[in-house]
Amino acid sequence: FQKLSERGLLRPGFKALCVGAGSGHSVLALRENGLPDAIGIDRKSFAPLVRRGDIHRLPFAHDSFDFVFSASFDRALVPALLASEVERTLKTGGVAAMLVSPRRLNVGNAINPFYSLSPVVALFRNSDVVHVTRVGPPNAHDATVIVLRKLPFGSSKSLGLEQEYSWSK
């Protein structure tokens, strides 16, 4: 989260949500980085960091969060529904960061053999990509973080599907 802060995409005081938060490690990291009210959601509660809930039907109002993070996007049963819920709960101008792995990516319930991020980006219909970076050891295809910003209602994406986002093979 430090690099997102350095880029001005994550600021102290932001209201933050971690989707598919597990035991809450990402929630704790956000709290330690100046977001004391960060909360997680997962199918099992891990109080006080993670509330019980369905990641495909987030129990929060529209425009609730400045920042939404998920390290579970590529494990969602219905990635399109998760993307829609992330955008629904994210405030206009808010930032979403999705950690995805080429080995686990599930788009349309079929493993993506092309190691492309474009299908993931396409699921976020109301957001623009602002940053893409690989994380993990050099030469490893472990994970990529896709950072998106939610557009105002009625805006059109500046980066369409004509731009290919992919992992190196």
Automatic annotation (TrEMBL):
Q: Could you tell me which SUPFAM superfamilies the record lists for this protein?
A: S-adenosyl-L-methionine-dependent methyltransferases
Where is the secretion signal located? none
Q: Which Pfam families does the annotation name? A: Methyltransf_11
Give the Methyltransferase type domain ranges: 17-97
For this protein, the record's InterPro entries field holds: Methyltransf_11, SAM-dependent_MTases_sf
Any one GO molecular function term = S-adenosylmethionine-dependent methyltransferase activity
Protein's UniProt name: Methyltransferase type 11 domain-containing protein
Q: Say which species the protein is native to.
A: Picea wilsonii (Wilson's spruce)
